[in-house]
Structure formats: C-alpha cells, structure tokens
C-alpha cells in the first residue's frame, strides 16, 4: 500500500533477528535516532544517559536476549548500540525529562494512546490507537518475528525497537502512558516489557512478567488472550495493580486510556467524565453498542466526540490497529483511523 509503514520479517536467534531488523530498516533506524534526539533536545538526550546507564545494566542482566537483539540492530543499521538502546528507551527518556530534568508537579493525566479489548462469540479483539508526534509517521514500521526459541509476534513501533503493542500467538497487547510520579533507573524498558508480554502464552503469564521486573515509569498494559481473559496492568515505578472487567463494572470488554483507574494509585475514586474525556467517550460508545467485529472496534477508535481519534497541530493517531487474537489477524492503519485504509497482516 503506497505510503504505508514498511513491514519486515525477522527470524532466528536474537542476534540474527536484530541484524535482519537493522539491515532492512537501516535508513529508518538512523532517522528514528536523529528524530528522538531532535524532539527531546540534545542536552536532555545526553544528560539522561547518566541515569539510563543503570537501566542499560539492568536490562543486560534481566533481558539479555533482547539486549543481544538491540546489539544486532545496531550492527545491521551501522550505528552505535547506545543510540539504538535510546530508541528503545524513547518513553523512558521522555518520562525522565518530565520527572527528573523538569521535575514539575505530576499532571493529572497525559493525552496519548487508548486501548480496547472485547470478547465476542467468535473472536477476541484488541484495538489500539497509538497517539504521538506527527514526525514519527516517517519512523514507524511493522515487525513480524519468528524467534528460534519463542513465540511468533507482530508489533508496530519506531524502527529499531524490539517491541511495542501488537499480537502474539496467544494474546494481544495495547498500552498507554500513565502519569507516574516517580522514575527509577533499575527497570526494564517499556519496549522490552511489551515484547515479553507478546511472547507470553496467556494473560496470567503476561501479568507474571510484572511480578519479576520493575518498570521505569508509569505505563498501562491491556492484555487480551485467546481464552477470552482480559486484564489491565497499571504499572509504575513502585509496582503495579491489575484491573479486570469485573473491577470496572463491564462484561466482556475492558477499556483504558491515560489516567490511573485503580483508586489507590489515582488517589481516590476516578470520575472519568471529568478526568479522561477519551475514556468517557469510549465507555459511552461501548455501553450503547458493544462491538462484535473489527469494524465495530474501529468505529470507536475513529470517534471524535471525546477525542479518541487524535487530531492536533503537532500530534495525531500515528497508528491504529485491531488484532484478532484467535485467527492471528492484525489490521493496521497508518495515521488516523477515520482517514486511513487498513492493511492486514497474518501472524504466521
């Protein structure tokens, strides 16, 4: 499809997958690194490495295979490994900038990304709108992998990344930022946590990942597995909490955007109508009619009454996908879902 994100296939050992990734997307990986430095600011980019060196060491110890894959990407893209690691630490760098460099009062919510999961009679659907800076439209890629010792996966991310939301053999994953109050250096990168979840065999196994790995900052992970189990993990620098449809008073679906919904993490009961308009809009649409197919989920993703589909001067929905977990179908749109046409990829 003209103008769509490039799609690559990688397979084999971690090093082999990384080399294939870097070689196939060499120019785009280099562009992603340059764009990250530009949008964060060179001074902040370099200063953040002071703390991220500890993160680098933590990832080497707790995710050596993914670090080997990053090394392969760097070699294949003819880049320094530090800059490829920083691509994978994109959200951590942004969080570090906000919480360490700028050190402002924590905001009530942020305005990026929304995740939907719904169980129908025939399928388990997970939809994700990834909202971000428009410049990332020139850096994205669809990566499909077949590890020599692991589960197949397909995800969308900036070129050079080892993981982000997508589809695995047994589950799908959506994610969105949360307004964490703390940043920690001894944690796994968001991209790495996503990748580990994508290779899990169930939602329960996906949750276990957060019991053994720290997150650097606030991030939400919505998991939907082939059995129809839906769980939401609100992770932060000090731990995590799990939400289920029962916790949210829904049946057969679970939604999340960018505010903590767990009362303890949010500091009290959350009124989404006043704190998170996109979640309020999505909940209203689901109450009116729970989606039963990909088109139904996409209709919610395209909503403008509460800004689910993001249109701003500098940012937009840069990716919108709906994953069919049981059939292994991944339907993705480059840019806003209200304007684009989906391209379908199969997991295998």
What does this entry show, briefly?
With 348 residues, this protein is an alpha+beta fold.
Could you describe the 3D structure shown?
This protein has 2 domains: 7-101; 114-346, Penicillin V Acylase, Chain A, CATH 3.60.60. The chain has helices at 14-24, 26-40, 42-62, 64-76, 81-88, 90-101, 190-198, 203-212, 245-248, 263-266, 272-275, 277-288, 294-301, and strands spanning 7-12, 114-119, 124-133, 140-147, 153-158, 166-168, 171-177, 219-225, 230-236, 239-243, 253-256, 315-324, 329-334, 343-346. It has 348 residues and is α+β, with helices and mostly antiparallel strands. The strands form 2 sheets. Strands 1-4-5-6-7-8-9-10 form an 8-stranded mixed sheet. A 6-stranded antiparallel sheet has the order 11-2-3-12-13-14, covered by helices on one side. 38% of the residues lie in helices and 26% in strands. It has 13 helices and 14 strands. α1 packs parallel to α4 and α3 (42-62) packs across α6.
Give a topology summary.
Elements: E1 7-12, H1 14-24, H2 26-40, H3 42-62, H4 64-76, H5 81-88, H6 90-101, E2 114-119, E3 124-133, E4 140-147, E5 153-158, E6 166-168, E7 171-177, H7 190-198, H8 203-212, E8 219-225, E9 230-236, E10 239-243, H9 245-248, E11 253-256, H10 263-266, H11 272-275, H12 277-288, H13 294-301, E12 315-324, E13 329-334, E14 343-346
Parallel strand pairs: 1-4
Antiparallel strand pairs: 2-3, 2-11, 3-12, 4-5, 5-6, 6-7, 7-8, 8-9, 9-10, 12-13, 13-14
